[in-house]
Amino acid sequence: MHATTETLATSPAAQGGRSRWLALYTLCAGMLMIVLDVTVVNVALPAIQDDLGFTSSSLAWVVNAYLIAFGGLLLLAGRLGDLLGRRNIFVAGLTVFTVASVLCGLAGSQEVLVAARFLQGVGGALTSAVILGMIVTLFPEPREQAKAIGVYAFVASAGGSIGLLAGGVLTQAINWHWIFFINLPIGILTAVLAIKLIDKDKGLGMGRGTDVPGAVLITAALMVGVFTIVSPAAELGWTAPRTIALGLLSLTLLACFIVRQATASNPLMPLRIFRSRNLTGANLIQALSASGMFGIFFLGSLYLQRVLGYDALEIGLAFLPTTLVMGLLSVRYSEKLVMRFGPHRPLVAGLVLITIGLALFTQAPVGGQYVVHVLPVLVLLGLGAGICFPALMGLSMADVKPEDAGLASGLIGTTAEVGAALGLAVLATLSATRTEALAAAGKPALDALTDGFHLSFAIAGVIVAAAVVIACTVMRPRPSAAAEVEVEEGDELALDAA
After folding, report:
1. pTM for this one?
2. What is the rounded average pLDDT of the residues 173-188?
3. CATH number of 5-202+268-479
4. Residue 472, CB half-sphere, CA atoms under 13 Å: how many?
5. Could you tell me the maximum CA-CA distance found in the chain, to the nearest angstrom?
6. Residue 199, exposed/middle/buried by CB under 10 A (0-12, 13-18, 19+)?
7. Could you tell me which residue ranges the Major facilitator superfamily (MFS) profile domain spans (predicted)?
8. Cα dihedral 404/410/413/414 (nearest 10)
9. In degrees, to the nearest 5, what angle opens at C-alpha 316 toward C-alphas 313 and 317?
10. Which residues, including other chains, have CB under 8 Å from residue 483's CB and lie 6 or more apart?
């Protein structure tokens, strides 16, 4: 394994200034397609159920099949990008995702749709796992990298709320099939642009052998873990024997994977990367913040639908302020904040704003008004996410060696996916349990439902507050670019004086 840095990643020197930004937009287009797909499908689930005859329990597999493949393969996909070339994996993922999208749109039975959704998850994992690693190698200069990561963070974070709006429009204006068919022209165009704009990288190669046992163990551990969260835990409860048995199986497979990585000559995930406090802390924060944010977007949508009576299109429009605020900060101001204050302080400030927003959501009443009880929460969430997520992405990759960039990119995606699935399952279960208990005690249905949502909002706030604690204790603050410039200028003056 004697590859140089230039063979491991897209060479910045070979990319002109304009073409690098076009390459970034191409990568973000691929990411947006993946992120949109999750919430677009959620909006269309009632129409899919009516058309294909899904039961309430079987309908969940339209979402679960995707999540299991996506969450289970992210880490492996990221490492494959390091070994086989990140552009190769990105384009292969786009191809698989696009073909699977067409199969989903053409599906005339439950079985075909669920199988195609699993294949979509495979393509989504291959596509998204390598993007962040490609961005940090395309933009090695700190200021440009901060700006590029801000654009990526906006797409990755805000794409879900855009999907709510797009799903409502497509489903109501045409039919649910088009939420999948729309990916065909986008996928083809993105793949063509990627081949044209992004230099082909050779990767480390497979010469020293691939850690096949490690790949099997981590993929199985993650797939079993995600399956446990989205199926038996959500349907039977966390204390059900089947849930406990599968949870223990997932943990056992994960333990075997760690032992394998400590002893293998060419491990899939070298454990040395966790020597970085920033990478370890960033992944913990990513898992916790994803747990709180994803759960709240889902349960917040249910609050708008079941308590305030919003339809799918109105829910999408209601979340639009979050997207706009997040986009303005991520694209225009996050880079300036990181350059001025360093990534650590914006990270903490953003997480605190999200925590305040979640706490405020616990006060939304049965007869709530959007401008008074919902809009301030969504603005705070947008402010917090727009400030902290670009900083978090930058910190997660700051200490990573070029040959491990794909692995680190896949790892941060994996913690986000598992955190989101776990957070949603826990928050939804606790909310439903609280609602059922209050309804059984004689409380009016809407009051009981709202109190259940309030509990989940409060717990989500506690989860994000825990991320604040980790950011303050585990993460190692990095100097701002402005401070580094002052130090360099001081050194130059000292040399001149000497």
Report:
1. 0.76
2. 84
3. 1.20.1250.20
4. 11
5. 83
6. middle
7. 23-479
8. -110
9. 90
10. 342
